[in-house]
Amino acid sequence: MGRGLMKALGGSKGKKMKIEVDPAIGRPKDRVESAKFSSQVGVVARDVLPVPRKWKEINVQNALNPCIDHMQIHMDVNMDKPGVKQCVIDRLRSSSRQQRYRLHQHYKKFVNLQEAKRNKPAQVSDQQQWELLCDHFESPEFKNQSQANSNNRKKMRAKHITGRMPFTIIQNEIIWAEGDDCDMIELYKSTHENVNGKWSSDVAKDNWEQMVETKEKYSEEGIEKSEQEIVTEVLGHANGYIKGLGYGPKPPGKRNSQLHKELEETRAELEESRTDKEAYESTVDALTDQLKEQAAQIVKLMAFLQAGGRSVDQEGNQELDDSNNSGEK
To answer: What pTM, to 2 d.p., does this model score?
Structure first.
């Protein structure tokens, strides 16, 4: 990370940097905030999150919540906004997968399983965890999946030209520079065609032309389709992301289901709070009635004592108590 960016990230001493994550793209729109966010996710994934054999082994309460708390110590992320927490979890999952990949590369340096187990890398603190990962790397299931992933990477012919820069950051910079919207179809073109009009591959050019033709077809037929839906239709999607657009843009159904889930959770929390509030108010009302009744009894008792043992009726007339009446007879 360059000095200029580090200086920008530093901000005021002792003050946490405010990070605004956009749930629609899975990261901050601002370039500096996005860099800081990605860096902190990487640190947390490396230093706090245990590396699982599979993501489903991760426990939310014991593993993910401490990671989120750790991030909040170092930056002010808008976690209260629906969808943001899931974005953070998705990024932690991606970083965890990258960490596991790097550990697998270390594992492959050794001639056999036993030698690999004896050479635990420094970034893994627990020997038992490293041995479990080694057993996982040696399993037929992992080897088959690893080979399949390798074959898929070799088939990737529509490579982009943006390096490590997220597409969503490029999209926002186009919007800021041109003062107009940058739809997903134009974003694909901007990330696969250089300034001289040369495409990264014939496949990328064919994909873009198909997107344009599909958009025109839907327009002629009077069918409303968003650019993102058209891009997803042409490129396809896998595991919650649109192929060819990297991390950030998600298929509409995936993004909507995440936001809907968090919205329902928020509604449930509000309903629980409302129920608790009503129960509290009911208790307060009951206690208030009891206090009023006790106050009335105290007033009546004080009046009785001031009257020298005579009770006072509602008209203010004094009546002798039973002991006085019995003494007059």
So the answer is: 0.52
